[in-house]
Structure formats: C-alpha cells, structure tokens
Amino acid sequence: YRAAEEALGLLARAARLVARGGRAEGRVLVQTRTPDHPVLVAARHADPGRLVASERPLREALGLPPATAMAVVSGEAAAAFVDALGLPLGLRVQGPLDGRWRLIAPDHRTLCDALAGVERPSGRLRIEVDPLRA
C-alpha cells in the first residue's frame, strides 16, 4: 500500500543524484502513459504534500494507515499469538499470508492495548507496528 511513497522516494533520490554538485543541467526522464499520476506530479513540483493529499482519501476508504494503525505479526509463535489475541472491539485480522498476519485497528491506542493484553507464547515472534512493507 506504500508503493506511491516508495516511487516518489526513488524519483527524489534520482533527482538528487543528477543534481549532485549543484549542477543545474541534470534531468530525470520518466517514460510513462500516465504523466498526470500523483507520484509524477508531486515529483515534478518537488512537493510531496501533493501525493499525501491524493493518497489520504484512498487510504481512508481502504482502511489503511495513516487512517488506521497496523501491525504485522510473524514467526513460529505468530499463530498462537493471534489466536490468543481474539478480536478486541475494532480490531481486524487478515491472514495468514506467507506466515504473516496483519492486525488493523482504528487507532494506535486500540492496537497497542490489544497487543499489550496478550501473553506472549513461547517461540519466535515478531511484531512490526506500522511496517514499511505489509
């Protein structure tokens, strides 16, 4: 869900590389069928806020961060942890997919309370809150 952010970051990085040393002649060329894509518009104007403005309504509609809070649970003890978690009010569980579960809550307080309220099972367990890749 963060592909647009990553794409804008890559374009910004490319722009910094070609402008190294203060050279004004550096250019980044992008071949595309959609020149009005929000990522390209934000990159063209050097304004990440444009991308944020276009992404926020979509993420709210899909229930993705930053409109919600997310954690990814993985590891050999992940299934036992998710089972012990139950479904506190407002928490959604997606998965497993490739041995990982997504926990989505309406806000960070709900997510943190749910995570803190579960006794950790024995075994390897990884919990990533607001993961870069989910």
How would you describe the overall organization of this protein?
The chain has 134 residues and is of the alpha+beta class. It contains five helices and four strands, in the order αααβαββαβ. α1 packs parallel to α2 (38-44) and α2 (38-44) runs antiparallel to α3 (48-62). 12% of the residues are buried.
Number of distinct beta strands: 4
Helix content: 40-55%
What's the overall average pLDDT, rounded? 91
Note the main sheet: 4 strands, antiparallel
Q: Indicate the structural class.
A: alpha+beta
Question: What percentage of the residues does DSSP assign to strands (E)?
Answer: 15-25%
Q: What is the approximate shape? A: elongated
Domains (count): 2
Q: Cα-atom Rg, whole angstroms?
A: 19 Å
Q: From N to C, what is the helix and strand string? A: HHHEHEEHE
- The spatial strand order of the largest sheet comes to 2-3-1-4
Distance between the termini: 8 Å
The unreliable regions are none
Total of helices: 5
Topology of helices and strands:
Blueprint: H1 3-18, H2 38-44, H3 48-62, E1 69-74, H4 78-85, E2 92-97, E3 100-105, H5 108-116, E4 126-129
Antiparallel strand pairs: 1-3, 1-4, 2-3
Helix pairs in contact: 1-2, 2-3
